[in-house]
Amino acid sequence: MSRYNAAVTQLVHIHPDNPERRRVRQVAAALREGGLIVYPTDSCYAFGCVMGNWSALRKISRIRQTDRDHNFTLICRDLSEIATHARVENWCYRLLKAHTPGPYTFILKATRDVPRRLRNSRKKTIGIRVPDHPVPQALLTELAEPILSSTLLLPGDDTPQTDPDDILQRLAGDVDIVIDGGNCGIVPTTVIDLTEAPPSVIRHGKGAWGDINISAD
To answer: Global pTM?
Structure first.
């Protein structure tokens, strides 16, 4: 159970290029204790919690007003962590290696390490990505486990929130920590389905999809 009082949301400033380790440890501790955070990525700001924090997942769904079939993304530190949570064929590995870290979300078959509740109910898949941003990379290193994530797109908004002060004002009392890592943009990731060969781009986003060789050869 979190020692953080959700009625008092903390704004934690972390340098976007050189994250301060003390502050990274503070946020990692909050995540381990059941906290829900907002953090910057290489595409948009996002909600984040540790895997298995069902209370935080319900809170994200309530804030975003999503249904029970909403797909969360597993944010991983590197390719080896991806392989723990998803089945990676040889041809998938080459594509992943070429485009991680970066603003891409890859749809892969989930392993048994991923709780059933987090998998796509029909396809048994999970969205996985490795962000190219120092703040989440520092958090992932400190945590030594993935972050379960969802884009910070609030009801009534056409684009994700990107200003930390505005985020704090709108989510005060709903999340435990808002990380101020500067403005990181409003364009979501490019989503690539790697469950079948050849793979397919199912959402064109920040990642340069035209440069991706999606051949399975």
So the answer is: 0.91
